[in-house]
Design goal:
The chain is of the alpha+beta class and about 110 residues long. About 40% of the residues lie in helices and about 15% in strands. The chain has one domain.
């Protein structure tokens, strides 16, 4: 189980936003953490567009990525085959191989 980090969150949010725009969909804003305590994901609708907020701390990376992707699906009100197609495309875009490696900082004397 890979841990989630804010660096991975930011990288995935950029990748998903770029792909969402390329697909001609509404691109939500992404933030962390949600304003409501105890929730892993929230979606806020504002005049400027939707915002998907996802909790990163103490969660596996796959769960965080799934919440980001589902946030895009819900923000675009996609259902059925359209939702499945976009979901598959977003997963392919944000695959773990594309995530930045987050190595432990080097210790210096």
């Amino acid at each position: 189980m890979e841990p989630a980090t804010t660096l991975r969150f930011a990288h995935a949010a950029r990748l998903l936003a770029d792909e969402t725009r390329r697909l001609g969909l509404v691109t939500p804003g992404f933030r962390s953490p949600p304003r409501l305590a105890g929730l892993d994901r929230t979606l806020r609708w504002r005049p400027s567009g939707p915002t998907v907020a996802v909790r990163v701390r103490d969660r596996p990376w796959a769960a965080v990525l799934a919440d980001l992707i589902e946030g895009v699906i819900v923000a675009n009100r996609l259902v059925g085959p359209a939702a499945e197609r976009v979901r598959a495309q977003l997963w392919a875009t944000a695959s773990p191989a594309d995530a930045p490696s987050v190595a432990a900082p080097a210790r210096v004397a």
